[in-house]
Design goal:
alpha/beta; Alpha/beta knot; 2 domains; 10 helices; 45% helix; 15% strand; globular
């Protein structure tokens, strides 16, 4: 009787997840549980008009490696297409949000993130606001990256809440975008895990993401789900 009560007190998503998980191999289930525990939506990454797909795809790999679940892609002048040889499957496990419907998608993206409670920081080597090692993390953080040649647009710089940079001590004034993102995310994820900030996913977010992952690896997941929902 108690088991029946627990089953029906679960959300439909939780019930569906419990139904799909047995179709996932034991090894993959263990991998899912280990990785989901390190995932965060406290930090996100924004890519503005990245026209070199191998660089943007390398950023996606870094996001997956450092537990960043969401990446926001602004397509004002250039559409982004995943480079499968570079991304190495990382795009399967993170959520991509594209902004390409309006005349100025940069403002749309920034406003969307601010409405979700993010502080938006423009990454630039030319504005001395704060170093990535001292970036405030109490609020949710969105890191914006622009192209290597032109950097972020003036619109992005004008609407950002602040500016952040990586310290550099050589003659070169900038880093490859994928390197910049990897260094920034390593530093921030390390600081988050050492802090008392509640950076981990909520139970509902965990369920939603695990469901997406199961659907990607379970053969005929759509048919299994359809039968379950009809029962």
């Amino acid at each position: 009787m108690r088991e029946a009560f627990l089953f029906y007190s679960m959300t439909k998503q939780e019930q569906l997840l419990d139904h799909l998980l047995p179709f996932v191999t034991e090894n993959k289930r263990g991998l899912f549980e280990r990785i989901i525990a390190e995932r965060t939506r406290h930090v996100t990454v924004v890519l503005e008009d990245i026209f070199q797909p191998h660089n943007a795809s390398a950023v996606l790999r870094s996001c997956d490696v450092f537990g960043i679940q969401d990446v926001h892609i602004i397509e004002n002048n250039y559409a982004y297409n995943v480079n499968p040889k570079v991304v190495m499957g990382a795009s399967k496990w993170i959520d991509l949000h594209k902004y390409n419907k309006l005349e100025n998608n940069t403002v749309d993206c920034i406003n969307t993130l601010k409405n979700q409670g993010f502080k938006v920081y423009a990454t630039t080597p030319h504005t001395d606001d704060c170093l990535v090692s001292s970036l405030p993390l109490n609020d949710k953080v969105a890191l914006m990256f622009g192209t290597e040649q032109y950097g972020l647009s003036e619109v992005a710089m004008e609407h950002a809440d602040g500016f952040v940079k990586i310290p550099m001590y050589g003659f070169t004034e900038s880093l490859n975008i994928s390197v910049s993102a990897a260094i920034s995310l390593y530093e921030i994820s390390k600081r988050l895990k050492e802090s008392d900030i509640n950076w981990q996913l909520s139970p509902q977010e965990r369920t939603e993401i695990l469901l997406k992952w199961c659907r990607k690896v379970v053969k005929s997941a759509d048919l299994i789900e359809k039968e379950f929902m009809a029962s």
